[in-house]
Amino acid sequence: MSPGAAGPATAPELVLPPLPDGIDWSIEIAEARSGRPLAVHRAQAQHRTASIGKVFLLIEACTRIADGRLDPDAPLDVPQEHAVGDSGLLRWLRAPITVGDACLLVAAVSDNLATNALIHLCGLEAVRAVAPRLGLAQTSLWDYIRSAREPGMPWTASFGTAAELGRTMRLLAAGLAVSREVSDMVLGYLAADVDTSLVAGGLNLDALDHVEADDGIVLRHKTGYISILRADVGLAQGPAAAVSYAVLAEWDEAGGDRRIAAEDGMRAIGRAIRAHIRPGP
After folding, report:
1. Cα gap 47→252, rounded to integer Å
2. Which partner from 167, 206, 229, 232 sits 20 to 30 angstroms from 41, CA to CA?
3. Residue 19, domain member (yes or no)
């Protein structure tokens, strides 16, 4: 079975655990193949989505690799005007990297510097156009990653809804995010994601080695973090079923730091997904 294949059409709905208070949750969990909702909570609400929008950058970069406009083995220029810190490894590396290396760094460690270099290479407007071409109206990667957002800059790097992000993952699974070749390339990069601290934490996988099935579960996902938000979107396939999921948790910083509650809640959702796709011990 591919990562997008679903289990029996008669699979029961998935019961969400109690959601911690003080957090604005937006959730969609659905059958990966049919899109039949299994658990939904305010899935149409639009949120900041932090690094989740990098999925659309990967789609654009992989589209250009597939049609020959980009060579994955070509060296990648990292413009100084787009230098940024925080997540990633590129700022610590000594040797130049290739376009393909940058895609891997974006998927595996959400590398901000590699992200900005790829946006610069592809063009911001081209990256912004990816989500509308997929039929999404409230979801996009909208700007470079920035160390600070000054007046006049876009309000956030990326935004979206759980419903549209779940649909994005199902398009990838079905080979409909541009093409089967592009979709598989993006999913191949996402297989390297080492961040299993959120929803994926409840699946109990090896964080550093889950490209192949781990304990009967195959995972392809992307996470996002900012100070007031945690987000995780993905495809999870087990022996009994396969699901797409999108879980966004945002809070008002004036009400206090909710990140521990949000992360605990997301891992509880992951445990519910595990029980659904891989029943038993």
Report:
1. 12
2. 206
3. no
DSSP string, 238-278: -SS-EEEEEEEEE--GGG---HHHHHHHHHHHHHHHHHHHS
Domain assignment present for 10: no
How many Å apart are CA 163 and CA 26, to the nearest integer? 9
Q: Which residues contact 269 (CB under 8 A, 6 or more apart)?
A: 16, 17, 27, 29, 199, 202, 245, 247
Q: Residue 193 burial (CB < 10 Å; 0-12/13-18/19+)?
A: buried
Per-residue confidence (pLDDT) for residue 3, from 0 to 100: 40
- In the chain, the number of structural domains is 1
SS3 237: strand
Residue 246 backbone dihedrals phi, psi, to 5 degrees = -145, 120
- Residue type, position 68, single letter: G
In tens, the pLDDT along 12-44 reads 579 999 999 999 999 999 999 999 999 999 999
Q: Is residue 12 part of a domain?
A: no
Tell how far CA 191 is from the center of its chain: 11
Do residues 76 and 64 make contact, with C-beta atoms less than 8 angstroms apart? no
State the Cα–Cα distance between residues 139 and 231, nearest whole angstrom. 14
What CATH number corresponds to the domain at position 160? 3.40.710.10
Give the orientation angle of helix 112-122 with respect to helix 54-66, to 10 degrees: 50
For 79, the domain range is 24-277
Residue type, 211: V
| Alpha helices by DSSP H, the chain | 54-66, 99-109, 112-122, 124-128, 130-133, 162-174, 180-190, 259-277
Question: What number of other Cβ atoms are within 10 A of residue 251's Cβ?
Answer: 22
In tens, the pLDDT along 136-195 reads: 999 999 999 997 777 888 889 999 999 999 999 999 999 999 999 999 999 999 999 999
The model's pTM is 0.93
